[in-house]
């Protein structure tokens, strides 16, 4: 497996990542046992980069990934996203500071981790000039 530096973190990340949207139910039914086997196989061949999101099955993907990684969670670099999938928000999107902090806390619990490697917004809401509003940037 080819690895790259993960920014300036000192962490080596696999050049191939494993996307976890499917286990959240977005593409139909996938047996959790098959997902666990696939995660274990990915780890065996050197894949350590796993991408998930709060919106993938409303946290189901994050929880299933935590279960699949089990005691090997320390070997994984997990990227999770937030910002979409909120029925109470306009267009189901919310990137306010309050929502971001709530999403990070929920994801940490779902992933069963004290520290997540990367959190990213699925879509930052922008104003007419395509920049985030002052309220969104400063919270």
Describe how the helices and strands are arranged.
Layout: E1 3-5, E2 12-14, E3 17-19, H1 32-44, E4 49-53, H2 60-69, E5 77-82, H3 97-111, E6 118-121, H4 134-138
Parallel strand pairs: 3-4, 4-5, 5-6
Antiparallel strand pairs: 1-2
Helix pairs in contact: 1-2
Descriptive report:
The chain is built from 4 helices and 6 strands; from the N terminus they run E-E-E-H-E-H-E-H-E-H. It has 139 residues and is an alpha/beta fold. The chain has one domain (3-138): NADP-dependent oxidoreductase domain (TIM Barrel). The strands form 2 sheets. The protein has a 4-stranded parallel sheet with strand order 3-4-5-6, covered by helices on one side. Residues 118-139 have low confidence and may be disordered.
Strand order of the largest sheet: 3-4-5-6
Any idea of the CATH class? Alpha Beta
Contiguous uncertain segments of 5+ residues: 118-139
Class from secondary-structure proportions = alpha/beta
Q: What's the story with the biggest beta sheet?
A: 4 strands, parallel
The protein's oligomeric status is single chain
- Work out the helicity level: 25-40%
* Number of individual domains: 1
β-strand amount: 15-25%
Radius of gyration: 16 Å
Which whole number gives the mean pLDDT? 76
Q: Categorize the overall geometry.
A: globular
Distance between the termini: 40 Å
How many strand segments? 6
Spell out the CATH superfamily.
NADP-dependent oxidoreductase domain
Number of helices: 4
CATH architecture: Alpha-Beta Barrel
Q: Briefly note the CATH topology name.
A: TIM Barrel
């Amino acid at each position: 497996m080819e690895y790259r530096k993960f920014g300036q973190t000192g962490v080596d990340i696999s050049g191939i990542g494993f996307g976890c949207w499917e286990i959240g139910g977005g593409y139909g039914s996938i047996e959790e046992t098959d997902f666990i086997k696939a995660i274990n196989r990915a780890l065996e061949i050197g894949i350590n980069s796993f991408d998930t999101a709060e919106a993938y099955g409303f946290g189901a993907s994050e929880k299933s990934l935590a279960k699949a990684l089990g005691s090997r969670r320390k070997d994984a670099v997990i990227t999770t996203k937030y910002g979409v999938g909120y029925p109470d928000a306009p267009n189901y999107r919310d990137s306010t500071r309050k929502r971001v902090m709530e999403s990070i806390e929920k994801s940490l619990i779902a992933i069963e981790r004290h520290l997540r490697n990367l959190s990213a917004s699925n879509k930052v809401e922008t104003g007419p000039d395509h920049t985030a509003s002052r309220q969104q940037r400063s919270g």
